[in-house]
Fold ABC transporter ATP-binding protein.
Amino acid sequence: MTQQAAPPDEQDATPAGADNKQPVSEELRWEIPGDRRHDAGHAITLRTMARRLPQLIRRAMGMAWQVDRNSVIALLVCQVVSGVLEALGLLAVTGTITAIFASGHITERLHQAAPSLILLASAAGVRAVLGIAIGGLSTRLSPRISREAELRLLDAATHAELAAYDHPGFNDRWDAADRGVEVSQDMLNQSQNIIAAAASLIAAAAVLTSVHPVLLPLLVLAALPQAIAGVRGARLTYLASLETMKDRRLLGNMRWHLVDKQNADQIRSGTMADFLLGRYRAAGARVDAATDRATWASAKMSLIGSLAGGLAAGAVWAALLFLISTGRVSVASAGTATFALRSVAAGLHGIIGYGAIIFRTGMYLDDWSDFLDEAGGHRIARGDTVPTGPSVVRAEDLTYGYPYADRPALDGITLEVRRGEVLALVGENGSGKTTLSKLLAALYLPSGGSITWDGADTRTLDAHAAWARVAVVPQDYAKWPLTARDNITLGQPVTVHGSTADDAVNSAAYASGADEVVASLRSGLDTLLAREWWGGQELSGGQWQRVALARAFHRDAGLLVLDEPTAALDPRAEHRIFTGLRELAADRAVVLVTHRLTNVTVADKIAVLDQGRLVQYGTFAQLRDAPGLFHDLWVLQNDREPIAVPNQDDHRPQDPVLF
Ligand SMILES: Nc1ncnc2c1ncn2[C@@H]1O[C@H](COP(=O)(O)OP(=O)(O)OP(=O)(O)O)[C@@H](O)[C@H]1O
């Protein structure tokens, strides 16, 4: 989802030529930069569809092949046999009719017709069994294809650089790709339907040609208007689905915001429900209006197609009658031709109808494969050096710019933090502290300059090995719907010789104050921490923060990054963290981001950032007394009138304070 500003020409809300331009308010809009689907939608023609269908079928079969090749072989064999049986069945119709209309006693005629009848019945019976087998195989393959598509999508997303999420459109494309995963399971069935329609069309066409060569081209010509109308209808439907896509996504997004537990209290306390539901209704109405327009236009198209198709079918039947009356075709062959004509017409209809559907599905699958490529563009491709430590983390003339940002978030930063040290990052909102901490932790790579770990540029490090050496407590830490133990170990229990995995968990919990939280849980470390899921137990904000801290302390990491680690903690818990921090820093390099300047007294060095630049760098004692930003912030934070506290010795009841 991209929250995009309207383009400059749309921002001008005043009439042309007026001087004081008022920007219109920006609204959440789903945009996919460089979205090529609209052009692709307009390009849906009979010819493009004829070209595309084989590719799409190959693609569906290819996906199925990767999942279970035996089933694909069985599926194709069933389809081919079914097509051959259809042709045999149609030919048997001629034998049956010829025998029945021949001269002689009825018993004799029936006797003559028996082999054809048996063939007809057996072909129909075996085709029915094959149909069941095809259905079963498709049902087996489809969910597996979808899961494979999903796994590839998840793999691509989780193996992309973190910075990919900052690229405009990455999340939109993820969303579109996810839709591709949803429809991928339909792809096989749709291909099957087309193959089945094509098989029966080929079989019937062969039989029809054997009756009289003129019938087939005549039928194809007759089917053309309906085919064109069918494709146009498909184009209208696809374009309508594109037109409404943004609003449908908006609806999905709003639905999530409306019911998500995190927002539930604010929707109520802010009395926002009506406002949001109003927006929801408006978006829904836009979708309905566009769908109605498309349905009407498509119905008109179908009507024209059906009229043309009816006239054309009449011409074919007239031709058949002409052939019979002039003795060019026998009555028995005409009977076969009747069945074959119906099969050909049904086959053509099936190919066009299913073709339009699979064409649409193919568009969504393009989104999926585009995402795999795009994530591939952001795929982690750093060096392969496996770091130890790190003992010294150093930024050298570091610059970092978010994609499409007007100015760099960090500019020319040089500083370092060593094992055993605490480096505090201080500055006003938006000054670049969090960004810098992510670069030091090798989550982002520099745009300019360098970050080195023990002299090795983070660009040259194996990313996963590097992240195994860092522990991060971000401002918005994850609240995993897992047990307390898993929430601390993150599924990576550690045992130091002689100790159990829980010893490490317990000591991390003790260091963060999460031990008190665990002690209060109904099943201790085994308690599921997610009230809204599976009947788990919920924690308060501060309790969650203690768990998040325990998770970082538990990691065997050389670099510990704490971004506002005590924002939700009570004074006792906060005191515990900061008094224990030096001990934690003994064998780690610690980077601490905080606005509470009294807490930075524990730091060995303080880096003060202002609009992405390092404006001061020194110890607490040096910075507090020197003129500069740190001194200013310190004075502001301590500029509070002490609130009069009643004399502690005076135990007389106070007058109640009336508000
Ligand atoms: N994902 C992002 N994409 C684009 N710009 C970003 C992104 N994250 C942060 N920024 C911008 O980078 C600048 C620095 O942000 P950062 O989060 O590092 O600041 P901060 O000092 O940690 O702020 P705070 O004290 O509010 O947490 C800000 O101008 C912000 O708007």
Remarks:
- The pocket of adenosine-5'-triphosphate is lined by residues 166, 402, 405, 409, 427, 429-435 (CB under 6 Å).
